[in-house]
């Protein structure tokens, strides 16, 4: 049975292929080729991927990612489609689902929403709930750098506190949009922000996310 992560993986690969290697993305300084290389390195080179969260290893990550970005673009797309090697932790269905569902969703939107003609994507209710469940668990981590209190709110009223504090800004939107907002794609997320004017401006410019 297909999982959310598997479906998003194939969707991301298709988007990258259609966009072409030089297409812009929402990731600052990255073209589609760079984003594809990042996805491949994250799954296939754990020795380098640690640099995503460990700053002392960031230079190594940058070097390895540049090496992968130099590969034929079609090869990178195929590596994304086929997934990690058999001995990788990501090859386990449970790990793939836990670690890649949001990762691939966000990066797919990084490709889609960097194009001038993008339109909001319809997310089915089951997938929306899956995104929300992950957002609830990660909200405090994603919102830790917010300069003010931050609450994420679904249209049905369910909320997740991303940062305690005052004043408070409440961000309302569908789970997919809230996910993008919390991962630092504030300008591209279709959400409504409520709060003091200065606090809203601070949240809009904050460095949210991992």
Automatic annotation (TrEMBL):
The record's section on Pfam families has:
MDMPI_N (PF11716)
Q: Which residue numbers delimit the Mycothiol-dependent maleylpyruvate isomerase metal-binding domain?
A: 12-134
Name assigned to this protein: TIGR03085 family metal-binding protein
Q: Which residues cross the membrane?
A: none
What NCBIfam families does the record tag this protein with? maleylpyruvate isomerase family mycothiol-dependent enzyme, TIGR03085 family metal-binding protein
Coiled coil, from the record = none
Domain of life where this protein originates: Bacteria
Entries under SUPFAM superfamilies matching the protein = DinB/YfiT-like putative metalloenzymes
Give this protein's Gene Ontology molecular function annotations: metal ion binding
- InterPro entries hit by this protein: CHP03085 (IPR017519), DinB/YfiT-like (IPR034660), Maleyloyr_isom (IPR017517), MDMPI_metal-binding (IPR024344)
């Amino acid at each position: 049975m297909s999982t959310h992560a598997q479906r998003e993986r194939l969707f991301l690969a298709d988007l990258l292929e259609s966009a072409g290697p030089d297409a812009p993305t929402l990731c600052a300084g990255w073209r589609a080729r760079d984003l594809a290389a990042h996805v491949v390195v994250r799954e296939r080179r754990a020795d380098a991927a640690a640099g995503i969260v460990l700053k002392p290893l960031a230079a190594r990550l940058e070097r390895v990612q540049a090496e992968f970005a130099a590969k034929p673009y079609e090869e990178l797309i195929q590596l994304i489609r086929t997934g990690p090697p058999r001995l990788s932790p990501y090859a386990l269905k449970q790990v793939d689902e836990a670690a890649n569902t949001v990762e691939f969703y966000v990066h797919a939107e990084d490709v889609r929403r960097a194009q001038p003609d993008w339109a909001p994507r319809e997310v089915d209710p089951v997938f929306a709930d899956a995104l929300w469940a992950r957002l609830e668990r990660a909200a405090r981590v994603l919102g830790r750098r917010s300069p003010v209190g931050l609450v994420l709110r679904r249209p049905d009223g369910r909320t997740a506190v991303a940062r305690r504090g005052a004043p408070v800004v409440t961000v309302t939107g569908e789970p997919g949009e809230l996910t993008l907002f919390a991962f630092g794609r504030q300008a591209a997320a279709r959400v409504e922000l409520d709060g003091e004017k200065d606090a809203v401006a601070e949240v809009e410019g904050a460095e949210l996310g991992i």
